[in-house]
């Protein structure tokens, strides 16, 4: 596991916003003007986290797909991937 994997998962964890909505409701109340601002900020933050996680994880997957192709390439057809031969 590389640091980009950890960063992608950390960004993906930013999507979990239900507890934040509950805390903002308990702290501000339904009729307070700050409650609506907090709700919008939490939803925007979750959307940004989801978009950033999608970008980072897609780039990570593209990199690992290329590595898998290199590791399984067998140009001489002897049944042993070329990366394991000198």
Short description:
The chain is an all-alpha fold. The protein has helices spanning 3-13, 18-28, 33-72. Helix 1 (3-13) packs antiparallel against helix 3 and helix 2 (18-28) packs antiparallel against helix 3.
Write the layout of secondary structure elements.
Blueprint: H1 3-13, H2 18-28, H3 33-72
Helix pairs in contact: 1-3, 2-3
Give me the count of strands.
Answer: 0
| SSE order, one letter for each helix or strand | HHH
Integer average pLDDT: 87
Low-confidence stretches: none
Count up the helices: 3
* Separation, N- and C-terminal Cα atoms: 26 Å
What does the main sheet amount to?
Answer: none
Classification by helices and strands: mainly alpha
**Estimated helix fraction:** over 70%
Task: Explain what the structure shows.
The protein is an all-alpha fold and 86 residues long. The protein has helices at 3-13, 18-28, 33-72. Helix 1 packs antiparallel against helix 3 (33-72) and helix 2 packs antiparallel against helix 3 (33-72). The model has no long low-confidence stretch (mean pLDDT 87).
Give me some keywords for this one:
mainly alpha
